Amino acid sequence: MISRTVLKSAFAATLTASLMSVLSASADDNEILERVKPTGQLVVLEDNATTVPAAAAAEAAPATADVGKSTYDTACFACHGTGAAGAPITGNKDAWASRVGQGLDTLYSHAINGFNAMPPKGGAMNLTDDQIKVVVDYMIGQSS
Length: 144
Ligand code: HEC
Hints:
CATH topology of the largest domain: Cytochrome Bc1 Complex, Chain D, domain 2
CATH class of the largest domain: Mainly Alpha
Helix content: 40-55%
Structural class: mainly alpha
Number of helices: 8
Order of helices and strands: EHHEHHHHHH
Number of strands: 2
Low-confidence stretches: 5-17, 19-23
Distance between the termini: 56 Å
CATH superfamily of the largest domain: Cytochrome c-like domain
Largest sheet: 2 strands, antiparallel
Bound molecules: heme C
Strand content: under 5%
Mean pLDDT: 78
CATH architecture of the largest domain: Orthogonal Bundle
Radius of gyration: 19 Å
């Protein structure tokens, strides 16, 4: 009899749940729901299989950057993608250099608590402090 090992279904459920909680602000946004729909697949290994197919292994990698980007697109892009209200544009290294120079703790604090025309959490008060930090890391990564 062939024994089979089914991988990833639990992981996929966990990943999906965490993505959904990050983006619960936009649960009514069909585009977001489409973007975060479960992407897991069942991987069935035959007897004696010792490796998971490469494509499946790559897909299983946690996608922190993707969460940062999708949350950014939802909560921050309106200003930081356009410069609205004088926001430093993501990707503009000159605009970010002196801000990054303040240190991460200051950037996190300003993003969470607000700073001049920067509203607390960009107005997305349902995001946790840790979620904001992930987004700030994403923005800095795009801008340095
Ligand atoms: C309503 C427009 C608006 C939205 C939405 C917004 N920001 Fe900002 N943000 C600003 C403005 C304006 C500044 C510049 C404030 C200043 O330097 O006086 C800024 C500055 C910042 C800074 C730099 C702070 C510093 O100390 O230099 C960070 C980090 C930041 N925003 C993160 C975010 C994140 C993360 C989000 C989404 C969760 C977000 N912002 C959403 C307007 C916005």
